[in-house]
Design brief:
globular; 6-stranded mixed beta sheet; 451 residues; 9% strand; 16 helices; two-stranded antiparallel ribbon; 8 strands
């Protein structure tokens, strides 16, 4: 039945339905592949009948296009962040094809292993479920002959300093942070308490995202690897683009949505950013690849308003159904954004490691210098019977204002949790930043090029 007949029989046809019917009429359904004109077509993608070989080559071409944008002419060791989902599963297979298969001509990577961050503690999974998930993930790693670094999320409390180097580390060894077992129950309880204190699901998802990235970066430093590859798809990147603006992180969009992003000296690469979720699902199906079912915070919810990320994802997917170039248009637009030039040192957020805005830097600097002046001039108030040293009231006044060393999005997260429940590296990084401001003020007369 045509759109006109439907309109006469059932009333006015919605514009979305008219567009979908028009797309179906324009779909080229043929027996032969429209690309090679030889093979029999096996699937329809973007209104064109395509054979599997041409579709596979198209996926690999997109993958290589992102992989080799800044590739050096030498073998580069990398780690792969494997979450168990379809995107990271396809990433492993395509990279294996490029390195060891018939497509090895333009790939120069040496895979040192897989990283899997275990989030079972905050999801309240039983020990049997955690062990079963670890067993399946290890089987996939063994299939490709790569070691697996299985890192529980609660190990984030073992990192005392975000900027700590491997040589300075005292709580981690070179075998990997997954070997630490002492005090695991205490760390698990602290992690559960941290997420229970978060009032909104958006804050929980942000915390999980930042802590996961921190553990990935720290594992790369332990393995002496400067680059890690993630299987973030085009759909996820487009969703992140809009959600970052909604959550007050728009200043860092160019840094987060680029082809590569830096996190404390470790390069995060996104070779799957040109592939849609539909393409990845088709690739996995024809290759017979099975991922690992890993529940997330929103696995059991059907509410589209569960969080900002969840709502944004539903919005983008709905647009993608009617306008199939929505995702790539968003990514092309974000690619034109650049970070503002800075003639000084780049000060970063103590929680997410994102760049601070000039206004946030001035506020943090002013508070640090104010605290230095108070320490030099102010003596103990003598309250609470204090005759020497400092009273609790004095120490409370001199306590570092952590919120001033966070970006706008992380300030919102901090407003929902208690500072004492956060991992120690956040306050440690804020204190280092404050000390840097004080030191910079003391030597400002000797700096060249400073106004």
């Amino acid at each position: 039945m045509s759109a006109k007949e439907t309109s006469d029989a059932c009333g006015t046809v919605p514009p979305e339905e008219i567009r979908r019917n028009a797309n179906k009429e324009r779909t080229k359904v043929t027996d032969k592949c429209v690309k090679c004109k030889v093979e029999k077509s096996t699937l329809i993608f973007r209104r064109e009948s395509t054979c599997w070989k041409c579709f596979e080559q198209q996926c690999i071409k997109k993958f290589k296009g992102q992989l080799n944008l800044k590739q050096k002419n030498r073998s580069e060791p990398v780690l792969i962040a494997f979450s168990g989902g379809p995107s990271s599963r396809a990433l492993i297979e395509i990279l294996h094809e490029c390195i060891a298969g018939r497509n090895k001509a333009s790939a120069y990577f040496e895979v040192k292993g897989f990283i899997h961050i275990d989030e079972g503690t905050i999801l309240e999974l039983s020990e049997e479920e955690k062990k079963e998930k670890e067993r399946v993930v290890r089987l996939i790693a063994e299939k490709y002959g790569c070691p697996l670094h299985f890192v529980p999320l609660e190990h984030v409390f073992l990192i005392p300093n975000l900027l700590e180097t491997l040589e300075e580390s005292s709580d981690f060894d070179r075998e990997g942070i997954e070997e630490k077992e002492e005090g695991s129950e205490e760390r698990s309880e602290r992690l559960k308490g941290l997420f229970k204190r978060a009032k909104t699901n958006t804050a929980k998802e942000d915390l999980l995202f930042h802590l996961r990235n921190l553990l990935i970066a720290h594992t790369c430093k332990l393995q002496k690897v400067e680059k890690v590859l993630l299987g973030t798809s085009a759909n996820r990147m487009a969703t992140t683009l809009i959600s970052l603006v909604c959550k007050g992180r728009g200043f860092n969009v160019p840094q987060e949505i680029g082809n590569e992003s830096k996190f404390e000296g470790v390069c995060f690469g996104f070779p799957m950013r040109d592939l849609l979720l539909k393409e990845i699902s088709l690739y996995n199906r024809f290759k017979g690849l099975e991922g690992v079912f890993v529940p997330t915070l929103d696995t059991k919810t059907t509410n589209p308003k569960f969080s900002i990320d969840h709502l944004t994802e539903a919005f983008v997917e709905e647009l993608q159904v009617d306008f199939n170039h929505t995702v790539h248009t968003l990514l092309r637009s974000s690619g034109k954004l650049t970070m503002p030039e800075s003639n000084g040192e780049k000060w970063r957020c103590s929680m997410c490691s994102g760049s601070l805005t000039p206004y946030e830097i001035k506020a943090a600097q002013a508070d640090s210098l104010k605290g230095e002046e108070n320490n030099n001039s102010k003596e103990c108030c003598g309250g609470n019977g204090c005759s020497s040293g400092k009273s609790e009231e004095c120490e409370k006044e001199e306590k570092l204002k952590l919120s001033l060393f966070l970006c706008g999005g992380c300030k919102r997260v901090l407003s929902e949790v208690e500072e004492d429940s956060l991992p120690p590296f956040i306050r440690s990084h804020a204190e280092k930043t404050s000390n840097s401001f004080k030191l910079r003020e003391q030597i400002k007369d000797f700096l060249i090029g400073e106004e």
